[in-house]
Amino acid sequence: MKAVGLYKYLPIDNPESLLDVDIDKPSPGKRDLLVKVKAISVNPVDTKVRSPKNALEKEPKILGWDVSGIVEETGSGVSMFKAGDEIYYAGSIGRPGGNSEFHLVDERIAAHKPKTFSFEEAAAMPLTSLTAWEGLFERLGIATKKDENEGRSILIIGAAGGVGSIALQLASWAGLTVVGTASRAETEVWAKKHGADYTISHYADFLPQLNKIGLSEVDYIFCLNSTDQHWERMMEAIAPQGKICSIVETKTPLNISLLQQKSVTFVMEFMFTRSLFETKDMKRQHEILTEMAHMFDEGILKTTLTETLQPIHAETMRDAHSKLESGKTIGKVVVSRNE
């Protein structure tokens, strides 16, 4: 079957960074779904995995961890899906990605796609939706009932990106006062359109900007951009006994002693943890995506798709990676099979 993969880890402007390849069509294991891929989207994990390094692959490495498609075949132990079902999912970083004609995914981390969404709209959402939901409601422990969040506030750093765009919507739905960071006029507009009550710049200290909009501190911080760069600013802005969650790995050691005086909780969120380690609660991702599909269909949440490219070929995927690496994308870029 046709796929897009790599043998060498190269800069995206190198034509060999992503290649059109032929690989064997996979067969589903006991709990697997064999999916006919209709659309995929690109996330920072794709560019990080593909980024230049001294390594060579004997077999093509396939990227792509946001997929919407149609179930072609099911494994012998599958109980939640059948052939013909339209689904969406983020998959597992421990398995080949979805930039291919057909793809395998464990049923416990997939869900029926929103009925009102196109495949392209659906493909934009799984990875970022799971990251945002887990970060907000599981890692930070924010309540999902508005009355329990009255008077509470959150700062979302990197609000106009893929995760930020859905995190804004979820935080607003939960009843928090939502502050998002944005660096350009268009990202400020986007952030406010998607749930931010206020926007501030992530190029300046947070606390003085929060003071200007009437906030002396924030109860929660969701860091989606450069944990290292914003570490001390977050310590200044967080409330005593507040909570901070980051999805961005650090490049330098951090002074965690800064957490102590305010008794601040700091946690990390990695959306692939459940699938990578096959945790006992792995099915929770199926449940989250199912709940969010209902919210999308009811109009409570909306897709963050901003641009669709086609078809799923190497040249198109290089274009998508290049757009993401520019740091200027808003929302999500999706690549459609165009059949």
Rounded radius of gyration (Å): 20 Å
Order of helices and strands: EEEHEEEEEHHEHEHEHEHEEHHEHE
How confident overall, as mean pLDDT?
Answer: 96
What is the CATH top level name of the largest domain? Alpha Beta
Largest sheet: 7 strands, mixed
Query: What is the CATH superfamily of the largest domain?
Result: Medium-chain alcohol dehydrogenases, catalytic domain
**What name does CATH use for the topology of the largest domain?**
Quinone Oxidoreductase, Chain A, domain 1
| Helix-residue proportion | 25-40%
Question: What fraction of the residues are assigned to beta strands by DSSP?
Answer: 25-35%
Organism: Fictibacillus marinisediminis
GO molecular function, one term: zinc ion binding
InterPro entries: ADH-like_N, ADH_Zn_typ-1, ER, GroES-like_sf, NAD(P)-bd_dom_sf, Zinc-ADH_QOR/CCCR
Pfam families: ADH_N (PF08240), ADH_zinc_N_2 (PF13602)
Describe the structure.
It comes from Fictibacillus marinisediminis. Keywords: Metal-binding, NADP, Oxidoreductase, Zinc. Belongs to the zinc-containing alcohol dehydrogenase family. Quinone oxidoreductase subfamily. Residues 13-335 form the Enoyl reductase (ER) domain. By secondary structure, the protein is α/β, with parallel strands linked by helices. It folds into two domains: 2-125 and 277-336, Quinone Oxidoreductase, Chain A, domain 1 (Alpha-Beta Complex); 129-268, Rossmann fold, CATH 3.40.50.720. The protein contains ten helices and 16 strands. The chain has helices at residues 44-50, 119-123, 126-139, 162-173, 185-193, 206-212, 227-237, 273-277, 284-297, 314-325, and strands spanning 2-9, 19-22, 32-41, 53-62, 67-74, 86-89, 102-106, 110-112, 153-157, 177-181, 198-200, 218-223, 238-246, 265-268, 305-309, 332-336. Strands 3, 5, 6, 7, 8, 15 and 16 form a seven-stranded mixed beta sheet that branches. Strands 11-10-9-12-13-14 form a six-stranded parallel beta sheet, sandwiched between helices. It has a three-stranded antiparallel beta sheet with strand order 2-1-4, with helices on one face. β9, α4 and β10 form a beta-alpha-beta unit. The model has no long low-confidence stretch (mean pLDDT 96).
